[in-house]
Amino acid sequence: MQSNVAAEMILSALNTHYCESIFITDGDGVIIFVNELGAQRLGVAREKLMYKNVRDLVEEGVYGRSTTLMAIETKEECIARLNPDDRESTVSHSVPLLDENGEVVMVVTNNMSLEHSREWESILKNERQIAERLRRELDNLKLQSDERDIVIESPEMRRIYDTIEVIAPTDSNIIILGESGTGKDVMARYIHERSNRAEKPFISINCSAIPDTLLESELFGYEGGAFSGALTKGKIGLFEAASGGTIFLDEIGDMPLALQAKLLRTLENHEIRRVGGVAIIPIDVRVICATNADLNAMIQAKEFREDLYYRLSVFTLHLPPLRERKEDILPLAEGFLRRLNEKYNTNKYFSKVTVQTMKDHLWPGNIRELRNVVERIFVVSEGDELDFSPKPTAEIPQEQGEVFQNKIDIGRYDTLKDFVEAAEELYIQAVLEECGGSMSQAAQRLGIHRSALYRKLHKK
Questions:
Q1: Distance of alpha carbon 336 from its chain centroid, rounded?
Q2: Is residue 48 a part of any domain in this protein?
Q3: 3-class secondary structure, 179
Q4: Model pLDDT, residue 171
Q5: What's the CA angle centered on 358, arms 356 and 362, to 5 degrees?
Q6: Per the structure, how many domains does the chain have?
Q7: Domain carrying residue 96
Q8: Could you tell me the CA-to-CA distances from 370 to 198, 337, 342 in Å, in that order?
Q9: What's the pTM value of the predicted model, to 2 decimals?
Q10: Which residues pair with 290 in a beta bridge?
Q11: Residue 458's closest CA among 352, 344, 369, 386?
Q12: 301, 352: one domain
């Protein structure tokens, strides 16, 4: 008795609330249930469809083909358009139910209009994109966690990490300042991992890498039809995706002023409103920002909101450039080299001259440049010993470059020896650049022994 009541409730729900067509037939194709929407789409009264064979519907031209009959004949799941020649046709999906002898006893068919099918496909695609983005974020986080080197040799970095141990467990917002390549993103991840939110998402976005017109919808999401090209069902933003965790806003100085105002309201009220929406959505997200811009100068120039700056900078961390933390240079380089050796099953090492050159180099690109240099000399080296000489930089006096280009301007130098040494230095640097920093190849191109090249590069 109870099972009959439950069955009636299920059929009633399918008839009243299900938003697509449902047909259920017996093993011969006789309709034993059709919901109201299914009858409406066929333009036939529901009571006239009951107990009618789907073969008759096909013969009467109600629709061009029947996946129900296909499922009965093949005893397999079937999907097809009911009217193949009609671009706005309906997609029909039939599933046969078999008894213990493998005979069809019932077929359940769901018909969905192509318009709704595309809409669901768009929704699913959007959800897959969000899932994929979050998966990449988690994979990247794992990769960064597995591969990065946290080097704390210099006094400057020790002070920074002592500070992090204190502020990481809090929910306070943080601004990380520093030159490009100093590892601001790594520092943000490190703070998240030391926080009480470590088990929740860490989502980063580069504010300078996304057009202003799209940045707002990326951060706050949007409602369906909010703008041209928007998904019908809308999309959640990164603040919602990071719920309970941390959102990292890199290059915050590039955020447009109008969006800065909305970010300020989000931080003050702990809630967002999607683009084109009216509903208020509460959020619980910690914000960490980073920039290499001078925010104080931007505030004076009315390019960055002062009230937003104070809301973001509850704590401010200044990451020193690599030239001011020389004690960290070699440990970082050795960490990069160790991972390359492990990856390619090699045993390469830095030459003594390379070690000294790395310590003396100013590294204008900071840790990012150091990583690239290690990878480059690892690839171009002919043996296990790695040689490095910096590419030509602005450190070479401008007048030397002019002499080298003009070939004749000896009035700038007191003696021929000074002129020859300046020209030689520029030529060596140019050859080294062409050889990708390989000392062996450069020495061969110059027609001198490698030891002689070392002496010329490092003479005082």
A1: 23
A2: yes
A3: coil
A4: 93
A5: 120
A6: 3
A7: 2-113
A8: 29, 11, 18
A9: 0.56
A10: 176, 250
A11: 352
A12: no
